[in-house]
Amino acid sequence: MGKTALVVGATGLIGRELVEQLLESDRYEAVWIVVRRSKRWSHPKLHEVVGFEEMDAALPHIDDVYCALGTTIAVAGSQEAFKQVDLELPLEVARVAKAHGATRYAVVSAQGASLRSSFFYNRVKGELENGLRIFNFHHLIIARPSLLLGERDSFRLGEKAAEVVSRPFQSLLVEKAPEVAPIQALHVARALIMASEEGEGIEVLTSGMMQRMSR
Fold first, then answer.
1. Model pTM?
2. Which residue ranges of the chain lie beneath pLDDT 50?
3. From CA 152, how far away is CA 165, in angstroms rounded?
4. Which residues pair with 56 in a beta bridge?
5. DSSP letters for 39-103
6. Which residues pair with 66 in a beta bridge?
7. Which phi and psi (to 5°) does residue 148 adopt?
8. What does the pLDDT read at residue 18?
9. How much is the pLDDT for 161?
10. Which of 17, 52, 149, 198 could form a disulfide with 186, with the two C-beta atoms 3.0–4.6 Å apart?
């Protein structure tokens, strides 16, 4: 029997790539997503739960969790609202998934994530990483990508400007400075899925590692 995956943040840049690649994988016979509003995506392996408050009651046995939840303070409206999406929801997903049998949790964090960071965003990501360790998953995979490339649903001026500036140097950066080179969302998703094939304990994927895994 194939495994069952849960994806949260399925409508975001990395989340969409995760869903697409997981549906194509022979390793999984079912892919569940939790969304705020129904996406009405159609695929025989895809199952949808609308509303995080319905998650616990609706989910079946889960093997692997892929968490790509994330927003910005500008979109969220406040630091507290940001923490709700980037910290509290991923931890709640971990709690529910563990109760449903999950042994592996793969999460998108951020380059520079640290409890001691002077940057609020990176400090929250550090809190998330620290909080997930407490659940003692058999395998916790933490991805720390640099600037993400891909087609976003929402326009982010700063990220778009950085992408435009770095695009002519992308190949050189990947070769000479992979840890700081912008990385395609599909490569982050691919690296998370590859890392989930085996392993145990806490595994941190740096941006450079994910660049190399995608080659």
1. 0.88
2. 154-166, 169, 172
3. 17
4. none
5. -----TTEEEEESGGGHHHH----SEEEE-----HHHHSSHHHHHIIIIIHHHHHHHHHHHTT--
6. 7, 106
7. -90, 135
8. 98
9. 45
10. 17
